[in-house]
Specification:
The chain has 6 helices and 23 strands. By secondary structure, the chain is α+β, with helices and mostly antiparallel strands. It has one domain (48-353): TolB, C-terminal domain (Neuraminidase, 6 Propeller), CATH 2.120.10. A 5-stranded mixed β-sheet has the order 1-20-19-18-17, with no helix packed on it. A 4-stranded antiparallel β-sheet has the order 2-23-22-21, with no helix packed on it. The chain binds 2-acetamido-2-deoxy-beta-D-glucopyranose (2 copies). The chain crosses the membrane at residues 25-47. It comes from Morella rubra.
């Protein structure tokens, strides 16, 4: 009788019938639906051949060297040099004779950027395109520009702009990520290959995999070091060839190191210590999860507090400039009163007046 009444008013609504019949059904359906991605993720995890190795315990030490002065809000007061005209200006090399910064960008261009008091007076000139991704840049003894390009190798760009390949292999092994470069007073070029397995676009895999692949071809200080430390390699004198501690417990992950000619090395820090990276270094399975996310949906943003650390000749930190909003800072040089920071992601060089915004 009640059914008949129901029929006469409106056609049965399937969803109504289900919700009347079994109250637990929608809940179960919800649980099953939510399990699908979990099961899918577990299967992906099991099938994925990526096999990260544990890092040695000193990688995930939480020790941070004390720094006497810092400016943890360096974006406040910082300026953008070459805004919108530079694509991830990674390294910055300054030629005082012309007042020009050379920087290599993600679009292959080596740009010449004039250094002026007012950033609006700075001019960006597209100078030479390597056809690759110029990273490390150093000025040679004949005013040539030596470029570490992970896609091309070690390049010599003459003052007239002619590009010549110096080398792209060592002992039969092709370089994959020719990364940092410097030229010694005697003209010897020191450079590093950050990974012989992964190319730059894949550099994250190197870090996630945790197997040592940095080639120390001849590099004074070791770049992109997961251990948050810098080593010193003697290129001359009694200790020639010896590697020793320079600084341990950096407040972040280091990239390029530049000497300012005034008694300080500037160590660029791609990111400060963050909980996600701490967990990733500690647990290979976390790195594998990140690797799978990177492959299918993109890597989560795990970096903050990037910046630069000034260190004296003895390896003692003197000042730390950083900001929660900064990541993938790859180089820092001091020119006059300003710190200029290259980076892998922003469309400009970051500049901070150290007199106006000092570390305290
Ligand atoms: C900017 O700096 C360059 C190199 O030092 C110089 O040649 C140029 O005249 C400067 N421009 C202005 C507007 O100050
Ligand atoms: C780079 O090329 C220039 C011009 O040919 C040359 O003078 C210079 O010595 C070269 N530098 C190196 C390091 O080979």
């Amino acid at each position: 009788m009640s059914r008949k009444k129901h029929d006469s008013t409106s056609p049965p609504n399937p969803s109504k019938i289900i919700s009347k019949g079994k109250t637990s059904w929608p809940f179960t359906a919800f649980s099953v639906a939510s399990l699908v991605p979990v099961v899918f993720a577990i299967i992906l995890y099991q099938l994925d051949p990526f096999d990260p190795a544990p890092y040695p315990p000193d990688v995930f030490t939480r020790y941070v060297v004390p720094v006497p002065a810092s400016n943890g809000r360096m974006l406040q007061g910082s300026e953008s040099v070459g805004a919108g005209k530079l694509v991830g200006p990674e390294d910055v090399a300054y030629d005082p004779s012309s007042g020009v910064i050379y920087t290599g960008c993600a679009d292959g261009w080596i740009n010449r950027v004039t250094v002026n008091d007012s950033v609006s007076d700075s001019v960006v000139q597209k100078w030479v395109n390597t056809g690759g991704r110029p990273l490390g840049i150093a000025i040679g003894r004949n005013n040539e520009i030596i470029v570490a390009d992970p896609e091309k190798g070690l390049l010599n760009v003459s003052a007239e702009g002619t590009v010549e390949l110096l080398t792209d292999e060592a002992e039969g092994q092709k370089f994959k990520t020719t990364d940092a470069v410097d030229v010694a007073h005697n003209g010897i070029v020191y450079f590093s290959d950050a990974s012989y397995k992964y190319r730059l676009k894949e550099f994250i895999w190197d870090i996630l995999e945790g197997k040592p692949m940095v080639d120390f071809l001849a590099t004074t200080l070791q770049p992109r070091e997961q251990r948050r430390r810098c080593r010193k390699y003697h290129i001359q004198g009694e200790d020639k060839g010896r590697v020793e501690k320079f600084i341990d417990g950096l407040p972040g992950m280091p990239d390029n190191i530049r000497y300012d000619g005034e008694g300080h090395y500037w160590i660029a820090l791609a990111s400060g210590l963050t909980l996600p990276w701490d967990l990733a270094f500690r647990y290979p399975f976390v790195r594998k999860c990140i690797a799978i996310m990177e492959k299918y949906i993109g890597r989560p943003h795990m970096e903050k507090n990037g910046g630069a650390l000034a260190v004296d000749l003895a390896g003692k930190p003197t000042a730390h400039y950083y900001d929660p909003g900064l990541s993938l800072v790859s180089s820092g040089i001091k020119i006059g009163d300003h710190l200029y920071c290259g980076n892998l992601v922003y469309p400009h060089i970051i500049r901070l007046n150290l007199k106006q915004y000092p570390a305290t």
